[in-house]
Design brief:
Blueprint lengths: L2 E6 L11 H13 L4 E8 L2 H6 L4 E9 L2 E10 L2 E7 L1 H4 L17 H16 L10 E5 H13 L10 E5 L7 E2 L20 E2 L2 E3 H8 L2 E4 L2 H6 L3 H4 L3 H6 L4 E3 L29 H12 L8 E8 L5 H13 L3 E8 L1 H13 L4 E5 L3 H10 L2 E4 L9 H8 L2 E5 L2 H6 L5 H6 L5 E3 L4 H16 L1 H13 L5 H18 L1
Parallel strand pairs: 1-2, 1-6, 2-5, 6-7, 7-11, 11-12, 13-14, 13-16, 14-15, 16-17, 17-18
Antiparallel strand pairs: 3-4, 4-5, 8-10, 9-10
Helix pairs in contact: 1-19, 4-5, 5-6, 10-13, 11-12, 11-17, 14-18
């Protein structure tokens, strides 16, 4: 029997992307399909999404969805069912889905994503004729209110459905003042500690976590970490109270898009048995970043330039990295002071440090295919995808031991190296001393040619496709549906 699931997300590749959430939401339908799940993705009608729809067909109309007229339209996303909330007053805005041109959050984000949640609850609860779902899967705070509406204000003609709330990053919670509550259209009893109330205001993510039948995160280690004050971001008590209703499922990667043997972005394709061909990509990457050609290790960084990602500590370590014979190519954007500091580092070390501010999908592929090691010094990382791409491309990850980084990279300790299973370098605590030591370890291992190539091959052999994770989600859906009957 096919299980029909409504996946509610604020972004999904290939239509709209600002981060890893989009990769996961875009990959899930194909990942669960072989396991008896038909997943329909529900997205806001941003301009890019609406442009991608070919002759959209209206299925439902809301005359007043939190005060604005809206309609539900259908389409396809990579061959899978797609539903879109066409609400121009909320979503017909160019640029980033969440912030304006100055980088500030849209002032009405609470209303935009509450309306999105209300509509998702109507759809998932069976209020739209011809559309029924056995389960609703919400992603992050932007979709979390769907579960609150299903709990406190389900559609009159709807049915009870179990739900999953996935946390992609606990740091983003959607917390708003108490003054927005009357406009949400929820009954008074929803304003409670086990409802939407959170520290005197409305907590979108908190509301979803309270209402969900099951909570998932994107790695087992992160599922444990968010039970602590260091990583729980104020919600560790709630997470702990949910007990075994919280679990972690590691993200996968799209092995069709990220495959060094077929990647058209690379100067030279390669595989596990032809790692030597990577040198062609390294030479091309050096030229692209204006770096001196050399046989020494080339470290790459592909990231948002933020405190979470440990970029402030990386900046402190650049002189050390160059001093022991390394070079650095960085692609990213974010904090303006950090951007300026990297430009200054490039001027301080011409030919040794190259910087590109922004994001370029093709360049990120070329960096994975040409870099020797990828640095991921995150203070916390729910799952992380760049280290998975690095493993697939023989670009050895150097990572902080946290979240999904800890779950997916095997540290090159003596036992792992001797056993031929090491895939990268891990370090504890994001500090100058720990990161500098990890970089030094990586450089030492790099010059042990056979050991380094064994690490590359071990990483490339690892299966981080969506096969295992897709089955884990499908099994979870089936268990929740059976439990609810």
């Amino acid at each position: 029997m096919t299980i029909r699931v409504l996946s509610v997300a604020s972004e999904a590749v290939p239509l709209v992307k600002t981060g890893g959430l989009a990769d996961v939401a875009g990959a899930l339908p194909a990942a669960v399909a072989p396991h008896g799940v038909e997943m329909t993705t529900f997205l806001p009608g941003y301009p890019a999404v609406m442009k991608a729809l070919s002759r959209p067909r209206a299925l439902h109309v809301w005359d007043s969805l939190l005060g604005e007229r809206a309609r539900l339209v259908s389409g396809k996303i990579d061959g899978h069912p797609l539903l879109v909330l066409d609400a121009p007053a909320f979503f017909q805005r160019e640029g980033n889905p969440y912030v304006d041109s100055s980088g500030r959050d849209w002032a009405d984000n609470w209303r935009r994503f509450a309306a999105f949640g209300r509509a998702a609850a109507d759809v998932g609860g069976g209020a739209v004729r011809g559309r029924t779902f056995a389960l609703v899967h919400a992603h992050d705070w932007q979709a979390a209110m769907a579960l609150a509406y299903l709990r406190f204000s389900p559609p009159e003609s709807g049915m009870r459905v179990p739900s999953v709330m996935t946390i992609h990053n606990m740091a983003f919670q959607g917390h708003y003042g108490a003054d927005v509550f009357p406009a949400l259209g929820l009954p008074p009893h929803a304003w409670a500690m086990d409802g939407v109330e959170y520290h005197g205001g409305v907590g979108f993510l908190k509301a979803g976590l309270e209402a969900a039948s099951m909570i998932t995160t994107v790695s087992p280690t992160y599922a444990r970490e968010i039970r602590t004050p260091q990583f729980g971001m104020g919600l560790e008590g709630l997470i702990t109270s949910r007990g075994d209703r919280v679990r972690g499922i590691v993200n996968g990667i799209d092995t069709a898009q990220w495959n060094p043997a077929t990647d058209i972005q690379l100067s030279k394709a390669f595989g596990q048995l032809s790692i030597g061909k990577r040198v062609t990509n390294k030479r091309a990457l050096e030229a692209e970043f204006g770096l001196d050609e050399g046989d020494g290790p080339l470290f790459v960084v592909i990231t948002r330039l933020t405190w979470q990602k440990g970029i402030d500590v990386l900046l402190e370590c650049i002189d050390h990295l160059v001093g022991i014979g390394g070079r650095l190519a960085l692609l990213g954007s974010g904090d303006k002071a950090m951007e300026n500091a990297f430009h200054a580092a490039a001027m301080r070390h011409p030919g040794k440090v190259g910087v590109r501010i922004g994001y370029d999908e093709g360049l990120s592929h070329r960096m994975q295919g040409g870099g020797d090691a990828i640095l991921v010094p995150s203070r916390f990382e729910p799952c992380g995808l760049t280290q998975l791409y690095g493993l697939a491309y023989g670009c050895v990850p150097v990572v902080a031991r946290t979240g999904g980084l800890a779950d997916t990279v095997i540290d090159a300790n003596l036992a792992a190296v001797m056993g031929g299973v090491a895939t990268g370098v891990q370090f504890d605590g994001v500090s100058y001393a720990s990161l500098a030591d990890a970089i030094s370890r990586a450089v030492t291992l790099y010059w042990q040619g056979d050991t380094w190539r064994a690490m590359q091959r071990a990483g490339m052999k690892t299966d981080f496709s969506w096969n295992r994770s897709g089955k884990a989600y499908a099994d979870l859906y089936a268990a929740l549906i059976a439990e609810d009957q």
